[in-house]
Amino acid sequence: MIVASTVKLNAKVTLVDRTGTRVPAGSLEQAVAMIAGWAHQSTPVLGLARQHETDPSFVPGRWALAEGQLGPAPGTDVPDYLLEYTEWHLDDQAGYLYPVTPTSLDTIGQAVATRAGHEITITSDLPGVRTHRYAPATDTTADSDVAAVLAHDAATVVPSWVPQLDQYVLGTMVSDRPVSTAQAFATRTQTRRQALGPARTGWRGALNNAVGLSIAPGSGEQHTRHLHATIQKGLAGHRSAVVVNIKGGASKTTATYLLGATLGRVRGGMVLAWDNNENSGNLADRALPAAHSHTALDLLERIADFTTPKHADRLAGYVRPQGDNKFHVLASQNEAGNTEVIDAEAFRTMHAALRQFYGLALVDTGNASTAPTWQAAIDVADVLVVAIANKEDAARRAFTTIDALRNQGYGDKLDNAVALITQPRTASPQRLKDITDTLEGLVRAIAVIPFDRALDDGGQIIWESLSNSTRQAYLQATAHVIEGM
């Protein structure tokens, strides 16, 4: 019998600063990365949101953020940020997620312990969240209680284990029905421990490397590994993400390049970043140069050569390899003007050919939602990425873009979209809150990218010059994109 003795309680994290501005951060690790990327005169102190401090499920406290790690802080310190938790879910040992509510947690924990026949511990890495332990009860009515609670609390997202607790306990088989020997071997506890492996980063990784220890990774490194695993998921065939905002200077090109670099470094395989500006784009200006100056226009003239993979070796004469970033750039035509050089039909022809060579394509778009080549790119998109700079004009145009997409019948693609909000040097927290609040319900996921001086001059993007918080933010953003594919 395979049983689960410990499960993790997790939640979506929102930061609330001293002005009351709420900034969605997603995970605790993302919240820590965001705070670390902001300027502070002293060590930032975090506390619980007021509604949590009075809840018996929490232990009030103060936590200081130093060198990317949270540690205890004097209880008298006034927090710089409050942690607000929503969208609770349980993570089991097999990696499954189950939406819960705090009010149903005790019922669920007790029922699971009773069904498993041993103690169940529900723990969390979130600061201030109590550990819950449940011993088996003799009252077997707990099974029906938990099914009723979940049917009410998770009516819109029903986990696969409801109400079949007799077959699964948090995604782990506990029945006496035989399982195959191959399944038993593949899912054994030893394999899961090996999947975590010793820490490779931070002070834990330094000790492991210096002394030969095997200290387990901390929550931050575990989250990073989870994002890597998400980005590395297998996809059934070619997938395309299209980056949009009809405002120039909204960080579309930067987002396209860094999503490509993250995919190349983490996922590998054939990844293409394609500048599909209807006139002349600048993706090539941000990329590493090539031994040629060919653009999409040159490729279009010879696209008949690439209707089959037969001439794959010749493709190197039209795209630009990006070194250790391990992806390719296809530059836009370098002819500026008001006349489209590559139209919708040409785009579709090129896309049909290139998808034979690349498993993933990231398409950078121009600034005209009425341009046929812009609409052709939207048509092939599996995921839309709405690029938004935290500036008044860029934000307004981003929502104009969203309206245009919905009016053109792309509402279903917007529902699966990812919004990337890039912070400028002097960012307005209130406008960031306004942007994220307005985006709620319009897109599937939101990622906030911190300001990075290495990207500020508009020149060539050098991965090694980026801050750790920028890389982590793009790791989260890329995982959001893959999740939509």
From TrEMBL:
The keyword Transit peptide does not apply. GO terms for cellular component: cytoplasmic side of plasma membrane; cytosol. The keyword Magnesium does not apply. Gene3D superfamilies: P-loop containing nucleotide triphosphate hydrolases. InterPro entries: P-loop_NTPase, ParA/MinD_ATPase. GO terms for molecular function: ATP binding; ATP hydrolysis activity. GO terms for biological process: negative regulation of cell division. Keywords: Cell projection, Cilium, Flagellum. Coiled coil: none annotated. This is MinD-like ATPase involved in chromosome partitioning or flagellar assembly. It comes from Citricoccus muralis.
